[in-house]
Amino acid sequence: MISRGSLWLPLAVLLLLATLSFWIERSVQIPPSGSEAIKTDPEGIMENFDALRTDPTGRPHYRLLAKRLKHYSGSKPTELEAPRFVLLDAQSGKISAVSQEASVSSDGQEVDLRGEVEVVRAAHAGQSAMTLHTARLIVFPERDLLRSPGPVDIRDATLQLHAGAMEYQARQRIIKLTGRVQAHYISGKR
User: What CATH code is carried by the domain that includes residue 85?
Assistant: First the structure.
C-alpha cells in the first residue's frame, strides 16, 4: 500500500517548478514600450555635430550642425540643441537658419527648428541680403523648401514685411506670404 506522504512529494515538486517558471518568465520579460526609461533615454549622443549632404555629383547641397545631437531608436525624432541649417547652392545662394532647438524626423526628410529662429539669405545676383525671424521653421532639405506656420518678420535693404505664415522655395528664391501681410517700403534716398 502507498502512503499518503509519497503522493504529496510529486505535487510539491510540480508546484515548486510552476512557481519557479512563473518567476523566471517575469524576470526576463522586456518592459512595455510605454515605459519612461525607453521614452527618455537616447540611443546615442554627439557633441559638436556636423553633417554635410552632397548631391549625386558630389557638390555640397546642405549642412546641418548642432551643439548636441540626441538620437533615439524607432520612430522618435532626433533632437538637436543650438542647431544651424545651411542650404548651399551656387546658383541661388547660401541660406542659413539658426534656432535654440530642433528635431529631425526619423526619415530625415523634415527639420523642425524652434525658438527664436533666424534665417539669413545671402545677397546674390541683384538681390540684397535678407533676414527672417520667426518662432518656428520647418525645413524640407531635399525639396529646398522652408515653411513657417506662424508669424514672420522679414527685412532686406528695401522692405520690412510681417505676415501670418510663410513658404520659401529656396531654389527659385520665391517667398509666399499668407495671413495678414504688412509691408513697409524703405526708400534708398534720404
Answer: 2.60.450.10
DSSP label at 41? -
Which domain, by its residues, includes 125? 36-185
- Low-confidence stretches of the chain (pLDDT < 50) are 37-38, 190
Decide: residue 97, CB within 10 A, 0-12 exposed, 13-18 middle, 19+ buried.
buried
Q: Are 163 and 154 in contact (CB under 8 A)?
A: yes
Residue the block writes with cell 528664391: 173
Any domain includes 25: no
Distance CA 89, CA 62 (A): 8
How many domains does the chain fold into?
A: 1
CA distances to 66, 106, 185 from 163, rounded to whole Å, are 28, 30, 15
3 state SS of 52: strand
Is 13 among the domain residues?
no
* Domain assignment of residue 115, yes or no: yes
Residues 12-23 pLDDT 10s: 888 888 888 888
pTM exceeds 0.90 for this model: no
